[in-house]
Amino acid sequence: MSEEELLYSVSDGVARLTINRPDKRNAMSWEVITGLRRRFAEVKEAEEVRVVVLTGAGDRAFCAGADLTGMKGESDFAAVHDARGELARLFHDMWELGKPTVARVKGYALAGGFGLALACDLVVASDDSQFGTPEINVGLWPYMITVPLMRSMSPKKALELMMTGRRVSSDEAERLGFVTKVVPAAELDSAVDEMAAELASKSPAVMRLGRDTFYAVWDQRAADALRLLHVMLTVNTSLEDAAEGIAAFVEKRPPVWKGR
């Protein structure tokens, strides 16, 4: 993969990852998916990074899915099968990151790109964005993105989108609940920056514990989830940042987080 196909920068605690293939509507090749995994691994260990913003270059697309032209012609069936699992491994990397992720969506978020956006914790979209799973129209099914879709909206609504392949406007996406915020295109960057700054201002230790616990209890039975939540509440209250947050509240001052 060319270094220019995946851009990376860090500023004020916010890492920005940009799929830079605007001529292909930021479609993901094998190399791009692996490159994203590599960057997320770096971000996980980078103490200076508190939030990750994921986006696509240009105005046409966040990501239009897999680059089908770049994912054919392989003769090793086992190798191709394993490579197809890279997207699932990327989703796991994102959920286990320990830091908030925000998808900045402008234009198309389709197929695997739709799943990539919904694998982020929050989604901020411009009012001209479109979402969809068009795989059914080319004789495929969106298998790998089923989990992020079902975690982001009613399962039956996710099934309807997968069965019909229809496009969803940003307004409908917000009503369905899988988009956090919709803004005019001209205000997209400022809205994303504002949200990222808000997330970066929180205790990184509490954010990590809370976010990890959220994903841990997602598929658990209520009784099992409550047992873990009980334990995590005690762990959280033992943190220095918890004591600092309470002291700052009482003293009517901004907290100074230590990250522990």
CATH architecture classification of the largest domain: Alpha-Beta Complex
CATH superfamily of the largest domain: 2-enoyl-CoA Hydratase, Chain A, domain 1
Beta-strand fraction estimate: 15-25%
Q: How would a textbook summarize the main sheet?
A: 6 strands, mixed
User: What Rg is obtained from the alpha carbons, in whole angstroms?
Assistant: 19 Å
| Structural class computed from helices and strand pairing | alpha/beta
- Strand arrangement, major sheet: 1-2-3-5-7-10
Mean pLDDT across all amino acids: 94
Using the coordinates shown, work out and report the CATH topology of the largest domain.
2-enoyl-CoA Hydratase, Chain A, domain 1
State the gist of this model.
The chain is of the alpha/beta class and 260 residues long. Strand 2, helix 1 and strand 3 form a beta-alpha-beta unit.
Give the arrangement of secondary structure elements.
Elements: E1 6-11, E2 14-19, H1 30-45, E3 51-56, E4 61-63, H2 77-84, H3 86-95, E5 101-105, E6 108-110, H4 112-119, E7 122-126, E8 130-132, H5 146-150, H6 155-164, E9 167-169, H7 170-176, E10 181-183, H8 188-200, H9 204-217, H10 222-237, H11 240-251
Parallel strand pairs: 2-3, 3-5, 4-6, 5-7, 6-8, 7-10
Antiparallel strand pairs: 1-2, 8-9
Helix pairs in contact: 1-3, 9-10
What report would you give on this structure?
The chain has eleven helices and ten strands. The chain has a six-stranded mixed beta sheet with strand order 1-2-3-5-7-10, sandwiched between helices. A four-stranded mixed beta sheet has the order 4-6-8-9. The chain has 260 residues and is an alpha/beta fold. The protein has two domains: 3-200, 2-enoyl-CoA Hydratase, Chain A, domain 1, CATH 3.90.226; 204-251, Lyase 2-enoyl-coa Hydratase, Chain  A, domain 2 (Orthogonal Bundle). The mean pLDDT is 94. Helix 1 (30-45) links the parallel strand 2 (14-19) and strand 3 (51-56). Helix 1 runs parallel beside helix 3 (86-95).
